[in-house]
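Summary for the funding panel

The consortium committed to producing paired sequence-structure records for every protein in the target list. Below we show the first two records in order, beginning with the earlier of the two.
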Amino acid sequence: MTISRTELEKIAALAQLQLSDEEVDGLTRDCQAILDYFQVVSEAGIADGAVDGSAERSAPLREDRIDCDPLEEKLEDLAPDWREGYFILPRLPALDADA
């Protein structure tokens, strides 16, 4: 597959890019190099990910379960101030400033 200068200019217009002639030429070369590399990969037969039979080997799966992660300490021990099941924090100074 090849990409032409006009195709790249259309793509740049769709992306709302303003490119100079030098930038268009450079991007055309870069995009063509990427497409050429994709061609090499597809010819090597590794595009599907199975190169050396690695798809046959899989990692063991863990059991899928939902449960709580218990804390080693109680929440009230973690809080600087705790009352009636709530964290008590100092008032923000911005709330006391004149608006």
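The next record, for a separate protein in the list, is shown here:
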Amino acid sequence: MCKTASYLFVALLLAGCAKQAPFLSLHPDNPHYFLFRGKPTVLIGSTEHYGAVLNTDFDYVKYLDELASNGLNVTRTFSGAYMEPQGAFGIAGNTLAPANGKLITPWARSSESGYTNGGNKFDLDKWDDAYFSRLKDFITEAGKRDIVVELDLFSNYYDTLQWKLSPLYHENNINGIGDFLNHKEVIALKHADLLAVQEEMVRKIVTELRDFDNLYYEVCNEPYFGDLIALDEFEQHMTGIIAGAEQDFAEKHLISQNIANGSAKLDKPNTLVSIFNFHYAKPPVTVDLNYGLNKVIGDNETGFNGIADVQYRTEAWDFFAAGGGLYNNLDYSFFTGYEDGDYVVAEGQPGGGGKSLRSQLSHLKHTMDSLPFLSLKPRPDWVNQMPTDSTTVRILSDENGNSLVYLNSRLQGDSASARVFTITLPTGAYTGYWLNPVTGNRINLDLILKDNGRAEMKTPVYREDMALVVRRGF
């Protein structure tokens, strides 16, 4: 073989070896978790109120830097088909409520003035190149930091106020689309002209974003307020539009479905859906009811449980200890002017957030990353005796006994104490540590289990919650 041919052969070989890892996908060895950029992955985040792209005042680079500084790796954003008025839900600095003239959407502005919240009306027959540049840049910047983007294409409109702000409302566009007042008819298949515009938006976004590996789609945020049959038909229809738009793509994106607030059992899952997301989840019930689907179970919006860190930290730990694969806190410390999340969330806000909570969630992320979680599954029957108070104990373990044990005592008041409980693991020697989920501090321990493998465990003194990580062998 001549020298030139040899060089060409080596170049082709290296090019083949350098093939990009598959897009975010369910892990083939355990689809309760993800495969991302060649690594088993759980997604944990603390997200601004979904306006990072559609609100041009928002500095999303600073925001993504803050997430990455804590090792958090998922964010959630809305497409621009839905936005909110100032003051909606009592949120201070709501990023989904852009200031006058600061909204950008998939549709271009026309030359006719009169959009409700400043600037010209929209032309639903034309795309806004600046919007797609901003959307792509946001996902690119997230990808540089190994952050996955959940893009919500639509949302329930909740009220006429939200509907009257949408470019799809007839007074806000020059096309005469959306000439009705009932906001419950938007996320439905009732109006053919509106549906055609919505379908084209989905196809356009899916086509524009075909090359991003750090992305998955959620069809509709909270499609369970209103006409449930119409909402379900719309969601099923749009799921098919996404799949159809990607049918010839070499790599396809995962699709998420937002199932319910709290807990619900999904009996007839859409086969095109890979992530089943809940809001304000009630772990571990939410996971328990749906674990048999063998897909990722997510908790991708929190709130309405006060502003204290403990509420959302314990929700996250309980969710993963039950077998969940995604947790995303709705963080009210982020908005325009506070893109680094420095705003101190005050009483009266719909939820919590802030630097201390993000630091605490980073301890969970690091702990999950340290575990062989692909081989783990929830094993409630391995907890033999609970503490004498109403502390709950969850255990995630594999056949060899590698385990995450989590104790939640947040309802026990302010007194700190040690707790005693009993678990059963396979007979053998273990090394591990107690982990304080608030501080990340560790206390190492060794454990030898004989006979039936039952062990009475006494925790360090703690107040709200405690975790235990054990690995087989010394």
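Regarding this second record: The domain at 23-374 is CATH 3.20.20.80 (TIM Barrel). The chain has nine helices and 22 strands.
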